[in-house]
């Protein structure tokens, strides 16, 4: 199969791109994400038609946040869109006249990294995405593993603290409450509130109050040596690394790939994650260690991965 | 392939059995487990020769506690035996003249249940073994998944309580410290110590002191309505079920199989595990639920599973 | 000294009462609580003048939520009112022409119970108030102990779960997030959401949804045997009792008094609290045990206590 | 009253000293601690007679680990000696012919620091002793507060981690499992085991293995910049400071005094404790902060305090 289209449905933008067999994006377009579900379907179809107009395209892969069923056809539940048992595959196929597969967005990103990014050459890879929340994908034996019902790899919602922080999912102590962009922001604000004298750089980047601190300030302040900013990354890394150690006990991959906006900081966050991983890895002196790698495709991993999954059929 | 031999190396006994393609055991023998590693190899070979003497056997599968490498040849580390990078496959093959595969014992038991027990008909199954500790095995897409280096499915050592109980593995807060036979015993003794008036049956079954309580007393007392015994099972189930919910977020199987000595109590322990599982299952109203099933093969699962894995080659 | 006035500043009402030396309330009045701090001072003064018009009153005690300084004059901080270093004693004295003492409301309630309620005859008493949040007061050696700076006995904000639930105070894992009316409501709603089939009574009392459950429904449902309602009280009691055990290790009182709206349910909540207390009491077989008693004065404890503290000067 | 004798019963040595009204020790003696309780009583009496032979002594104060009743006469329970309801006051009085008071050793040390050490000038002081375990004492309103039954101030056994580490007291998650000399040693060994490359100094001071690390190595290595040693102190301080913040919420003293062997390291441990204290202090911007001070009397605090308590009668 030749060219396919990948679609990445984000909270504010829908990105679509024509992708070749090497994972290269030949053409892209972006449109705003409509709120109404009807308009959303149309917008997806429009984006596909627009970007594919000048290419011979054979299939479409759509990455969306939420639970997607094992047939890769129906979105069972989406956290940010009013989809409940939404037959997205059928609706888009009717509109664009091409075979469509729907995939969880973190699964698609994991597949993209496995095929064309940091995971190349590894047969068993676990990807985690540290964005606003924490998502992930599982590759075992060179295949994406989606679970029996399609909803595997919901890493963000394993419980790491009994009776811990409330999570949007209704549970408590979920990993993503401790290892994600949102958690990083909470760490920074709490520390700046408690010990402002250690957060002078960080506070000066915002409006001088803890509430004024934003995610981008934390990395900027950390690079300037702000103690609270550095400590906030370390706290994030403590939880991220300990969770990877758990995943190593469960999956024993040869590589972990860490993606998402938080990982854009590179070694600032990866180095402490590696240390924490090693600290908590059970049996670490008796077993081969998985590598902990930075993702390579950045924000394009989902689009590229979705396109490639559509190619695989 | 026809008949194979399965070997289960326990702490006190080595069990060997000739197993056919239906998982039936045609003949078995048991010998004591020697302490010295040299004698242990001999004892395994003797058991194989003894039990196989009157059968045309084509391969041998050995289940052992510990880390087994991805080639299923070398025991990297065993918790109770002085094996470190022990080339067990080669040593036994030299002695018995048959192809040998070595497998982690909990993996072997999981495979046994998948093939001939509670897991029949499921393609994606997670088994947990609640014995003295907590072990497990992963079947995805009808295959045993051992990880890239052979040491996956170490369920007992995921961290469920940060800064929690010390574990023999050197870490803290491992799941098996909260959900295992040893944990059940601790629950019962602690509660009998704190509130002996609620443990009259339980205490009467031992020597009257909390230390005199043994595992078998707890199930007996629970069946007689002893509040501390019942509450101890409930506490175990709280942790077991919450952990299964985490595994559902990760693996999304269609069935969990609960085996090991603790599960011999049947619904006394399975019913509260199911309730706790459901209580903590993230997204439980939007997703199909995995079944939580009792293991069917009892203590023979490991032997039968090892034999069958040898048959698969 | 003869009659004094006690004032209890609540979120919606200010209650004032003339109290005699036996703790009897001779006359009361209630006025709405104004939002603006200026009007609030006036409203307090008005209430004092109104209720005291026909009595020979010698002093005024005011109970207010928040930090009150050690001179019992200034409110350093109030959680629900815009008071920061508010010289409340001076302002009210100027308006009413009587000596005024200001006291933390939970301290005042503790003193009321010690003098005229469940604490009579005990020299060392710890009171906890399970209301919306969790407050308390300390009596040691027949004296109210307010700390060196006036802000002792903030029981609700000791950390019982590291990395636990966010608290309005900016910290995490505070006791009042696990043992209070608000916590009880969370327990009930979470459980009704996860296992609605065990909450049929509870759900039927509200609008059929977890969000429709209110505090009063939980006790009503518990009395009708609703499993989720009963389990929610048990969870509350688990945390309340474990916290009392900690307070016993610290203060070693002869009695704990449990007040506040949650305790209005009497033995429904006190019995499991006592069991949990005993379960977690360190050294419980070697030491005399404090009694765990229900408060006797109900919602009047704060007013009566404030009046009596004013009398003591 | 003039001179009194203080006795400090340690695990290996009994120290006795004649102490004047200024807290100065005029003469001391040490004898080994016998195992048998009868011989122990004799040894205490001998030490008193020996040290007091050349002085006009008016009373004796004995500090012992364990629960001492409110009459300061009977040891209800001792963790390391076979005393259960031991009438120690009567037994020693009969032998030495002087009035005797028995006091919990950590209480005695707290009193010593309050009277003659770091606590001078403070009316409300909380002392914690970071030795092998964690003990403490409470001074409120210039008086030692022992609780209604004599067993207050058992700081080491408040629960700081639900389902946490087992404690010798039979409970789990006790503060002394996270903040004490024993905890510090565990932190160092665990970290040296997991990441030996960060513990080269620390490991070189012992026998090269984690088990060979002893307490004194950790401070020595920390002063030489060993990352694991420094991190171990920081972890200890994290827990110590967070616990002090809880004690501030409860007691609101004007000073905390940190004593015990761990505190001998001075600012190496006190500085991070202060930071952690401030980080976790609830309402820290609205309230006066207690000082966190180093103890001044070292290992003599208990003896001097016991002597002074005997003087107070």
UniProtKB/TrEMBL annotation, chains A, B, C, D:
Its EC number is 2.7.1.2. Pfam families: ROK (PF00480). The keyword ATP-binding applies. PROSITE patterns: ROK. Keywords: ATP-binding, Kinase, Nucleotide-binding, Transferase. Signal peptide: none annotated. The keyword Transferase applies. It is an enzyme of class 2 (transferase). Belongs to the ROK (NagC/XylR) family. NCBIfam families: ROK_glcA_fam. This is Glucokinase. The gene is glkA.
């Amino acid at each position: 199969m030749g060219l396919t289209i990948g679609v990445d449905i984000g909270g504010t933008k829908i990105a679509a791109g024509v992708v070749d067999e090497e994972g290269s994006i030949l053409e892209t377009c972006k449109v705003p994400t409509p709120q109404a579900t009807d308009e959303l379907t149309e917008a997806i179809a429009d984006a596909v038609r627009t970007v594919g107009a000048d290419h011979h395209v054979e299939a479409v892969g759509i990455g969306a946040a939420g639970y997607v069923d094992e047939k890769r056809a129906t979105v069972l539940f989406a956290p940010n869109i009013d989809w409940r048992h939404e037959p997205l595959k059928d609706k888009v196929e009717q509109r664009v006249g091409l075979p469509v597969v729907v995939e969880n967005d973190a699964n698609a990103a994991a597949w993209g990294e496995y095929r064309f990014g940091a995971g190349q050459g590894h047969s068993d890879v676990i990807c985690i995405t540290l964005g606003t929340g924490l998502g992930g994908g599982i590759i075992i034996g060179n295949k994406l593993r989606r679970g029996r019902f399609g909803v595997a790899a919901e890493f963000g919602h394993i419980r790491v603290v009994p009776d811990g922080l409330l999570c949007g999912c209704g549970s408590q102590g979920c990993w993503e409450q401790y290892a994600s962009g949102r958690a990083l922001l909470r760490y920074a604000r709490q520390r700046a509130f408690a010990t402002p004298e250690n957060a002078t750089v960080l506070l000066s980047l915002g409006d001088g109050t803890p509430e004024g601190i934003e995610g981008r300030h934390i990395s900027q302040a950390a690079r300037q040596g702000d103690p609270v900013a550095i400590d906030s990354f370390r706290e994030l890394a403590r939880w991220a690394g300990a969770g990877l150690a758990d995943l190593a006990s469960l999956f024993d991959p040869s590589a972990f790939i860490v993606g998402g906006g938080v990982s854009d900081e590179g070694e600032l966050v990866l180095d402490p994650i590696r240390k924490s991983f090693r600290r908590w890895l059970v049996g670490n002196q008796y077993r081969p260690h998985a590598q902990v790698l930075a993702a390579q495709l950045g924000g394009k991993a989902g689009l590229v991965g979705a396109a490639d999954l559509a190619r695989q059929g």
